[in-house]
Design goal:
The structure holds two protein chains of two kinds. Chain A is an alpha+beta fold. Chain A has helices at residues 30-44, 47-50, 84-97, 118-135, 190-199, 216-224, 239-251, 266-275, 297-305; strands at 64-72, 78-79, 82-83, 101-113, 138-147, 155-165, 181-184, 231-234, 253-258, 288-292, 314-323, 327-330, 336-338. Chain A is globular and about 65 Å long. Classes of the chains: A alpha+beta, B alpha/beta.
């Protein structure tokens, strides 16, 4: 909570004058400058932004760096457990984390729809700042465009990120080895079902909250304690099933999951069941799967469970010697089935 | 034969057909409402949904079903206002909120979804909502079962009746079928243990020479069903002949709006009677839906027909037999489209006839044989 001490919930722009985003806020003139100065620069406050230059200039350490980009178009903008701002930072931070990189610098590109309440924008950038600080990153450059009313969905955000890789190893699908164990950092499906519940006006007994969270701290902790992370993948769009299919294809190896070991919260499972969705394919925003050598499983679980983002860590499967890049799931009945890549979007079924 | 697509999905998902003794063969029935919706009606839906004055509402899994030339998702991509909803009442609310637009709900499904659709029409009339209509494709289970049983090609010796349908309709309609065709009918649920128990009850009846209607799904199904729901359906709908995709027209096998509610019929309102459809010649979904062929016996399976490029509805719906096989079985196990194809057991349950000793892959000699030997 100490991070919030310098936050103010009062937007410094004269909102009574401009309660909503106008085309002029993207027009390069006084209003745009006022918004950049009083909102973005004020909140993201750092020396790079103070340069007031077309690009942020920073020193590069020797060694390897990671660079990633992601765009965020979520609807609704605010949902149980988070908002688009938090998502935009965590998403890019987590992509860096999956390479084992320490996130350093982020960019923030905003496409605002004319008519977006300024208060909404203010809340979103506050969230972005809070999330960046939690991840140890700074938002050091950005851009704003405004599109006509009806041409956007309130706000679209693109974030790119640069991180530094401080460990000597390589992390990726090509490093996956037969016998590696798959470890998940927590339960599945919460983000996707939280969004769907709000979007479709579905009411469950308990509110399902998004799991959005920065994962870099946990990954860096694992690396600092000597865990050989062969491959990491965050389980966003398409969920665990899609991520594992991508890795199986890229590595040429097959993966076997234990159905009974995959944690899905009871309310999420019930919501998925009701809508005919498979939690294996539902999006997460704070979950990842780690491929580690069997000899390091206990150590990995111990480290993860001691970290706030890994309290629900568990072994969910392993890499098998079977050729063919198949992902299979062993049921509690002892039979296996294929877990395939999703075709298109998951669509709720009729009955 | 398990009648319902939800049961098919469970069977394949949990590999139940591989657990049971080899003397018992499960045949997948025509109980996926998406799969049996006739192509002509999909084309009519596409025609209506493309109109600029229409908001077209549907359950999600109808959107990817291929019509003659495109699907509803393609219409959406081209600018059609198509929304997937969870209930016809959601569509009715959209009609109330948007009096400037015609709101059409795609009313598909078996007896399970008919009461909610009936309620939407009943409410629309009661509230005087004139910009709401249904494109109706309701079908009834017992006539389809009778069609299968009366076919000379019928191989079905026992039925797992659809639990959700019977929750609404009860079990009385099945008693004459069981008696006339001397076939056990067990109303069955959808969990793996439900299905296994349903199979066990069917087998026990066969062994004892009984042909009765039994209720495995008693936690949801009462013999009399849901009377208020049945009364509402009878008020709003009337029994009519209905075309089934892959099966053709079956007399008295569908529901259409009754005379008192005909004003809510989208087919009449939008004059789509001229729409004519053309099925893909490569799709054998009709034979699959009748249980005469398995998805793996289709030459197009996993080749020309995949969930990304479906030729027929059973490859689209999450309840479709072809999609279930594609998703949960090895796509490399496609076979020649020979009716004599032998099926073994276990993960490599197809027998490849074209392997050299010790070879792991079939020679490609132009026949459609599977490529990986997992025996």
């Amino acid at each position: 909570m100490s991070l919030l001490k310098d936050f103010t919930l009062a937007c410094p722009l004269p909102i009574h004058q401009y309660p909503k985003v106008l085309m002029a806020h993207g027009g390069g003139g006084r209003l745009m400058n006022q918004m950049i100065e009083k909102m973005f620069a004020n909140v993201f406050d750092n020396d790079f932004l103070k340069q007031r230059h077309d690009s942020a200039v920073f020193n590069v350490n020797k060694g390897r760096m990671a660079f990633t980009t992601d765009s965020f178009v979520v609807s609704p903008l605010f949902f149980p457990g988070g908002d688009i701002g938090e998502l935009a930072v965590n998403g890019t931070v987590n992509d860096l984390a999956m390479s084992g990189a320490r996130p350093l610098y982020l960019s923030a590109g905003f496409i605002l729809e004319e008519g977006l309440p300024m208060e909404t924008l203010w809340k979103i950038i506050q969230s972005m700042n809070k999330a960046a600080r939690e991840a140890g990153a700074q938002i050091i450059t950005g851009d704003t465009k405004v599109v006509d009313h009806g041409k956007g969905d309130g706000i679209f955000i693109n974030t790119s990120g640069v991180g530094v890789i401080e460990h000597p190893g390589s992390i990726g699908p090509s490093e996956v080895q037969g016998g590696d164990v798959l470890i998940l950092n927590g339960d599945l499906g919460r983000h996707g079902m939280a969004i769907m519940a709000v979007r479709e006006g579905l009411e469950f007994e308990s509110a399902i909250e998004s799991d959005t969270a920065p994962l870099s701290g946990l990954v860096l902790e694992l690396l600092s304690q000597g865990v050989s992370l062969h491959c990491l993948r965050d389980l966003t769009r398409g969920g665990l099933a899609s991520a594992l299919n991508e890795i199986a294809t890229a590595s040429g190896l097959s993966l076997m999951l234990e159905q009974s070991a995959i944690p899905v919260r009871e309310d999420v499972r019930a919501a998925c069941e009701m809508l005919g969705l498979d939690p294996l394919y539902v999006a997460n925003e704070g979950r990842f799967v780690a491929f580690v050598p069997a000899a390091q499983v206990d150590q990995t679980l111990k480290i993860m469970r001691a970290h706030p983002q890994g309290q629900g860590a568990c072994v969910v499967g392993q890499v098998t010697p079977q050729p063919g890049s198949l992902v299979t799931l062993k049921s509690p009945l002892g039979l296996s089935r294929i877990v395939d890549m999703l075709s298109g979007e998951q669509l709720p079924r009729i009955c | 034969m398990e009648v319902c697509g939800g049961q098919t999905h469970s069977i394949v998902k949990f590999s139940l057909d591989e657990m049971i003794p080899s003397k018992i063969r499960l045949i997948h029935g025509p109980g996926c409402p998406v799969c049996v919706t006739p192509l002509e009606l999909i084309d009519k839906a596409i025609s209506i949904a493309a109109r600029p004055d229409v908001i077209f509402c549907s359950f999600g899994d109808m959107l990817r079903v291929p019509g003659t030339s495109k699907d509803l998702l393609s219409v959406k991509a081209e600018g059609g206002d198509i929304r997937f909803v969870y209930s016809p009442m959601d569509a009715l609310k959209i009609a109330q909120d948007r009096p400037d637009r015609q709101v059409v709900f795609f009313a598909v499904g078996f007896e399970t979804t008919a009461p909610a659709n009936a309620m939407a029409v009943y409410q629309a009339k009661a509230l005087g909502i004139q910009n709401f209509s249904l494109l109706v494709s309701h079908v009834l289970v017992p006539p389809a079962m009778e069609t299968i049983l009366s076919s000379p090609q019928n191989q079905v010796q026992g039925f797992l009746a659809a639990g959700h349908v019977c929750t609404v309709m009860g079990t009385a309609e099945y008693i004459p079928l069981a008696q006339k065709y001397r076939v056990p009918i067990v109303v069955t649920g959808f969990e793996p243990v439900d299905i296994l128990e349903g199979i066990s009850m069917c087998v026990r009846q066969l062994e004892e020479g009984r042909f009765e209607v039994e209720n495995q799904y008693a936690r949801s199904v009462r013999a009399e069903g849901n009377r208020p729901a049945q009364e509402l359906v009878q008020k709003i709908f009337q029994v009519i002949p209905r075309s089934w995709r892959g099966l053709g027209e079956i007399p008295l096998s569908g529901l259409g709006l009754s005379a008192d509610y005909m004003e809510f019929d989208a087919e009449r309102r939008f004059d789509v009677g001229h729409v004519r459809a053309k099925e893909s010649p490569d799709c054998i979904s009709g034979l699959v839906l009748q249980g005469i062929k398995k998805p793996l016996e289709c030459a197009a399976f996993a080749n020309a027909c995949t969930p990304d490029h479906p030729l027929g509805a059973p490859m689209v719906s999450s309840e479709g037999a072809c999609a279930a096989y594609y998703r949960y079985r090895n796509r490399n196990d496609s076979v020649e489209s020979s009716p004599r194809q032998s099926f073994g057991r276990g993960p490599g349950f197809l027998v490849c006839k074209n392997l050299d000793p010790g070879q792991k892959a079939c020679r490609d000699d132009g026949t459609k044989k599977f490529t990986v030997d997992r025996r």
